[in-house]
Design goal:
The protein has three helices and three strands. Strand 1 and strand 2 form a beta hairpin. Helices cover about 60% and strands about 15% of the residues. The longest helix is centred in the C-terminal third of the chain and has 35 residues.
Length: about 100
Amino acid sequence: MFDKLFQAQQKAQEIKSRLDNISVSAEAEGGKVRVVVTANKEIKEIVISDELFEDGDREQMEDLLLVALNKALTQAENVSQTEMQAATQDMFGGLGGLGNLFNK
């Protein structure tokens, strides 16, 4: 039993490390704002076009930044869930039909 728990902890750490190395990006307003986020939901980069700075519309810039951040975080969450589901299936796949017990 403890061996299975240890293996699960190791697998969780492997997944976290892998998610740190997966990046997703999202844009708003045709690329005027671009955000890069890891699959662990850590913001790595924010790029704002010079055009938005020239317009000087702070409220628009804030809104576009929120849109891009939320899109990127949603993508990161989707990648994270996919990785976790794959790991869970690997761990419980040997249990016959019980591996799908909670997916139905």
